[in-house]
Design a protein that fits this description.
It is built from no helices and 14 strands. With 182 residues, the protein is mostly beta strands. The strands form two sheets. Strands 1, 4, 5, 7, 8, 9, 10 and 13 form an eight-stranded mixed β-sheet that branches. Strands 2-3-14-6-12-11 form a six-stranded antiparallel β-sheet, with no helix packed on it. Strand 11 (115-120) and strand 12 form a beta hairpin. It is globular and about 35 Å long. It starts with 14 loop residues before the first strand and ends in a 7-residue tail after the last strand.
């Protein structure tokens, strides 16, 4: 069961982090104009979207499709789930299909059981999955379009000066240690 409400309507039940530009203007994995471009154009805040979900104390998997890119990038998306005290973040290299797990995040404890996978879904999209052990609490799965300028960042915090865009489609949060088909 997908616990995300409106899992591909990123302007409906999803809240904004700062004020990104959110436009459903890209061809998604389904072949329709169903994917969303999230743009961070702030030099002083990380911008993205999030949705608060009450999770049980168990393993959960957050997954999302992220558009592939070619060549050098000025910024890289960061996907994470966070509670008031814990976080499960990864950096996504959208050119090479690498999901880098963070080992430390300033101000948060890294969620236990954290693992990640970035697999090729088709010629245009990666399917990214983040698995973590949640505590019984409200968690916010979050999509940050330009979280860092380092393709393998794994410690610290989001780079608030980073700017750029990423294309996302079909977020999913589910009970279990792997992503099922969207």
């Amino acid at each position: 069961t997908n616990l995300c409400l409106q899992s591909n309507a990123f302007t409906t039940t999803w809240g904004t982090i700062s004020s990104p530009t959110i436009t459903q203007n890209a061809v998604g994995p389904d072949g329709a104009t169903s994917a969303w471009t999230l743009t961070d154009d702030s030099g002083v805040a990380s911008e993205g979207i999030a949705q608060e979900i009450l999770l049980t104390a168990a393993a959960h998997t957050l997954s999302v499709f992220v558009k592939k890119t070619t060549g050098a990038q000025a910024s890289y998306p960061v996907v994470y789930a966070a509670s008031a005290t814990h976080i499960a973040p990864i950096t996504i290299d959208t050119t090479n299909g690498v999901a880098t797990i963070w080992s430390a995040y300033t101000g948060f404890t890294i969620a236990s059981g954290l693992s990640a996978a970035c697999t090729s879904f088709n010629d245009n999209f990666w399917r990214v999955a983040v698995t973590f052990t949640a505590s019984a609490a409200n968690w916010s799965p979050s999509l940050i379009s330009a979280g860092t300028t380092n393709a393998t960042q794994s410690t610290g915090t989001l780079d608030v000066a980073a700017q750029g865009s990423a294309v996302f489609y079909g977020a999913q949060v589910e009970l279990g240690s792997f992503a099922t088909p969207y």
